[in-house]
User: Fold this.
Amino acid sequence: MDTYHYKYIAIEGNIGAGKTSLATRLAEDTGARLILEQFEDNSFLPKFYEDQERYAFPLELSFLADRFHQLKKGVSSHDLFSPFTVADYFIHKSLIFARKTLNDEEYKLYFTMFGIIDSVLPKPELLIYLYCSVDRLHANIRKRGRSYEQKIASEYLQKIQDGYLDYIRKQQEMRIVIIDTNNIDFVENPEDYPKLKKIILDEYPVGVHRITP
Assistant:
């Protein structure tokens, strides 16, 4: 019987990094409980990509509410039949995106609301960040073919990437593993997935760990 080091793992990354594909494959392979962000149901998302200034605040608020309800239900409840829980997002991505899309007054209000929500949610014992270049992100976005994503600017992807890395640099009490995925394709190349699985399921001390498979 396999022994796992963590009860709750969150897989993060920029838009198009492959976090949903990886979380899904890992859950199928290990029997873990899977939590996937339901972003495609958000009616504000296509509107946001057309007019970011107008729709940023309602988009971020709706995402925050959806993530809270999903994680509160999924992570907090006990599941005797799953060895651990894996999610394709971490609630703190809400702050990362909001800081890059909201003006100062909106962000101040948002930050207050986030603090209330965050205080009652379990924290992942391991955070995985899938790092890849903006060019690679664009290639992945084109490949998966969601129409509303095709106009995402490189500048926006870079802002989000910078936001994630800045967040990670400031964390002192988390286990974080940054995996450079620029030269692997765990969706198209079957031999790449076992490398990522081994990295994710390894044991790490608190701190930031950078790995290139």
Observations:
- The radius of gyration is 17 Å.
- The beta strands are 8-13, 33-35, 85-87, 126-131, 175-180, 207-211.
- The chain has a mean pLDDT of 92.
- The chain has one domain: 8-211.
